[in-house]
Structures are given as C-alpha cells and as structure tokens.
Amino acid sequence: MGESVKERLQQTIGYRFQNPELLTLALTHSSYANENSRGARVVECNERLEFLGDAVLELVTSEYLYETRIDLHEGSMSKLRASIVCEPSLGICARDINLGECLRLGHGEDMTGGRDRDSILSDAFESVIGAIYLDGGLEPAREFVRRFVLANLSESQLFRDAKTKLQEMSQQLFKCEPTYALVKEDGPAHCKEFTMSCSVDRYCEIATGHSKKQAEQECAAKMIKKLIASL
C-alpha cells in the first residue's frame, strides 16, 4: 500500500491524520500481520481499532437516532441501529470510499477476493472510525460517521446490494428470511420485463425490472424503506 493510496483515501474522507501510522494500522488485516511478523518483529493488525471503532459507531448512531427519530421507543431504535451498522451496510459504506484498494492483506486473502468481502471491509471501516477517534477525538469521528454512514440512510445508494441488507434486517427484526416470487413476465424475448414480489413477515412489495435479479433488488430496496418507516 503506497503513500498515494493513503493520500487518496484521506482526500476522499476529508480527514488528514496527524499520526499517519494510525491509518496504516486501521488498514492492516490480520492476514497481512500474520504473514509479515517474523521473530521479534511483530506486525499489529486492526482488530483492536475495530473494537474501538465499533463502540464509536454505535454511540454516534444511537445519538443520531435519539435526535432524529423521536417517534421510536427504545426497542425500535435498537433494531434500527442494528440494521444500520450491520455487516452488509458497512460493506457498502466501505465501497463508497474505495476502502478495499487501500487494505494491507495477506497474499492468500488478496487472491481470494478479500478486498471486496463484506466481513473484511466492514471491519476495516470500523477500524478507520477508531483511528480517527484516537487521532482527532470524537468530533471528527462523529462527522465521518454522519457523512459516510448516516447521511444516505434513506437514499437508494445505501441499498445497492439491497437483497443482502434485507436478509440481514429480516433476520434481525423477524427471525426469518425474505421470500421472492415471480408475479408476471411481459414483453418480447429481446426486451422482457419481470415483475417480482418480496415478502417479509406481514409485509409485501412488488417491483419490475428487465431481469429477475434487477426486479428482486428493487423489491428489496422498497422493502427496506418500508421496514425502516414501520419501526
């Protein structure tokens, strides 16, 4: 990971580290640390920063929901917070800032798609939050979370992998998985339109797309918004 990569990341997030080593640590996966630790030379990974960042993320998200969703009681706020900070959501947020290209991964992890794996991206995203908190305090960490996690909470870009996020939400809220069904298929062979339905518990949404996959994603995105509004 070159300095130019870290420089681009800092420009993207609008925060410049006083201690750049904290950013390097935040981007260091355990696979890289394991491969590069030799004898007395121990390379630290980002797991401890992830622990700290997770706590900061929960605090800032809780604060945001307390301020903006006065209609919700404690249980509903807890469920909504869980859906916001879940692994698929943070994976999307990490991709928005091109975090994957910045990671220090072990060779095997890199070769098997680790740079685009939700579990690795979400952990690194939380590590960056922890690094910002240690480097500059709560205020810049709060600004980062509000800008890159909470600002787009109701926007479609948060739901680009809507099916994955909806599955996580439905398990959190109802202990079940969404079900999809083909409602109808229209148009000539070269320009088909598919109408799909999505059901979660007592809720149902319908959407149309030029492929079943596209229609399912649209259904899932509409369902996410419906579930959030119902909390």
Describe the structure concisely.
With 231 residues, the protein is mostly helical.
Describe this entry's structure for a reader.
It is a single chain. With 231 residues, the chain is mainly alpha-helical. It has 2 domains: 3-153, Ribonuclease iii, N-terminal Endonuclease Domain, Chain A (Orthogonal Bundle), CATH 1.10.1520; 164-230, Double Stranded RNA Binding Domain (2-Layer Sandwich), CATH 3.30.160.20. The protein contains 11 helices and 3 strands; from the N terminus they run H-H-H-H-H-H-H-H-H-H-E-E-E-H. It has helices at 3-13, 20-26, 30-36, 47-68, 74-84, 87-96, 107-111, 118-136, 138-150, 162-174, 212-230; strands at 179-186, 193-200, 203-209. Helix 4 packs across helix 9 (138-150). The chain is globular.
Arithmetic mean of pLDDT? 89
Largest sheet: 3 strands, antiparallel
Distance between the termini: 42 Å
Number of helices in the DSSP assignment: 11
CATH architecture name of the largest domain: Orthogonal Bundle
SSE topology:
Layout: H1 3-13, H2 20-26, H3 30-36, H4 47-68, H5 74-84, H6 87-96, H7 107-111, H8 118-136, H9 138-150, H10 162-174, E1 179-186, E2 193-200, E3 203-209, H11 212-230
Antiparallel strand pairs: 1-2, 2-3
List its salient traits:
single chain; 231 residues; Double Stranded RNA Binding Domain; 2 domains; three-stranded antiparallel sheet
